[in-house]
Amino acid sequence: MANEASRAAYSRRAVEYIDLLGSMHSVHPSDLQIVSTWASDVEGHLIDAGCGPGHWTNFLATQGLTVRGIDQVPEFIAHATSTFPAVDFALGNLDCLEADAGSVGGILAWFSLIHHQPGEIQAPLREFNRVLKPGGTLLIGFFEGSAVDKFAHAVAPAFRWSVDAISAELGHAGFDVLESHVRRTADQRPQATVSARRRNAR
């Protein structure tokens, strides 16, 4: 979550959000395949950064991964903790993770960076780079567009990114892009994913 206004907006609509999007039943099959394939190559602990209601965190745990879900919205963490009691969840800020440098094998940032201003997105990306071990990987999900532009998201103002633009930001933050996927359907905003690996050199 990019700021206090976004956090407050999600808190107000947490019940509605959980009902609509808080389970794996709402996940598109191609997203499930992308995340599953990426996660199968992660070595070491994993962070679900901006975990929301926790369904993706729980899914990753069921795949045998050691994973922690982090979110700034107390209502999401309360729901996740009660719904998935065997999984580790905590309140946290994506710009300042409570994790040691080089301690994490993978980070999933599934539509959790969409509210960051373009001039602010380096903060979480560099923090992800800090906590990932050399060769650790990051998977980002986001709304895709031909340029970086602001739009009226249902909960709080958000930003579309082109794959090239987000890839450039990842490069500046010390990542090498591995692959990207774009999905455009008639009934949804275009969506994209980019996976990247932390460079070995600090």
Top keywords for this entry?
seven-stranded mixed sheet; Rossmann fold; two-stranded antiparallel sheet; alpha/beta
> How many DSSP E strands?
9
Summing up helix and strand content along with how strands pair, one would put the structural category as alpha/beta
Please give the order of strands in the largest beta sheet: 3-2-1-4-5-9-8
What's the gyration radius in Å? Answer: 15 Å
In N-to-C order, the SSE pattern is: HHHEHEHEEHEEEHEE
Task: Report low-confidence residues grouped into runs of 5 or more.
Answer: none
CATH class group: Alpha Beta
CATH fold node name: Rossmann fold
Major beta-sheet overview: 7 strands, mixed
